[in-house]
Amino acid sequence: MTHQSRQTRACLLSLGGGRPGSSVDLQNMEDSGPDRRGSVFAGLVGASQVLGLVSVVITGVWMGHYRGGFAWDGSAREFNLHPLCMVLGLVLLHGDAILVYRVFSNEAKKKVKLLHGTIHLLALITSIVGVVAVFDFHSASLIPHLYSLHSWGGLTTLILFSSQWVMGLLFFLFPGASSWLRATYLPIHVFCGLTLLVMAIGTSLLGITEKLLFSIESSYPQFTPEGVLANILGVFLVLFGVLLCYLVTREEYRRPPNPEEEALSVHFKTLTEGGAPATP
Q: Which ranges does the record mark as transmembrane (predicted)?
């Protein structure tokens, strides 16, 4: 046990009032706490992946079975690629890119950054394919572009998502940004990532409702199988978003800082507060 650990143990024992059971309680905390949190975390991550993957599968079944399948020919089958690509890209891959910092918390920071940026790039490419598909379909069918709230929200989300990816690339993967700039932009980057996930899910819900009203407006109130399946998709998307936000915002699931990151934090505090870094 290190000197710092012994000091921490002594402090906790003193807070316990020196009772005989205090050391036993402390030992139980050390032995069972991390394992219990780890198993809960693994279960929550697994549940999030099930929700996300099932959402993609439901979207594929909806568009493939009930809406005629997929093609790239300007027909309604090309439109069917739009919801599939958007759920896969802006929801599932986007959420997983955010989650890698929690799942791989003990891996080298540079590797996690590369994985984070790569998954986001795949999400961006997939989403662009989905947007091109719907624009092609509208052009071929002589349908006006960007007239609905769903289209406004979707295009705004995609543009901001693209900007977020470029800013992250410039600040965190390229070596040009200073430590002060990175530390300043990091909270904004994290907040924008979660906000964009919420926007993507909200826009998806608008799109689901819009598609149902266009396709089965007369039979939708009769609880048709297609309508029920699409409603379940919406519920799963919401649950996926809630679970992702929970995992990302819980303090105990945050990535523990390594010595290099702690040194950077001390350096940033010195720059902003004018104090001298404490010696170890």
A: 39-61, 81-102, 114-135, 155-174, 186-208, 228-248
DSSP string for residues in 134-152: HHHHHHHTTPPSS-SHHHH
End-to-end CA distance of the chain: 17
**CA 104 from centre of chain:** 14
Predicted confidence band of residue 111 (pLDDT cuts 50, 70, 90): very high
Q: What is the mean pLDDT of residues 82-104?
A: 97
Please give the structure tokens belonging to residue 238.
Answer: 């919401």
CATH of domain 43-252: 1.20.120.1770
d(CA 115, CA 109): 10
- Residue range 187-241, pLDDT digits in tens: 999 999 999 999 999 999 999 999 999 999 999 999 999 999 999 999 999 999 9
- Report the distance separating Cα 117 and Cα 165, nearest Å: 7
Tens-digit pLDDT profile for residues 128-165: 999 999 999 999 999 999 999 999 999 999 999 999 99
- Among 82, 78, 74, 206, smallest CA distance to 142 is for 74
How far is residue 59's CA from residue 70's CA, in Å, rounded to a whole number? 12
Q: Is 0.85 surpassed by the pTM of this model?
A: no
pLDDT in tens, 247-276: 999 999 988 776 555 554 444 455 444 544
Distance CA 211, CA 159 (A): 23
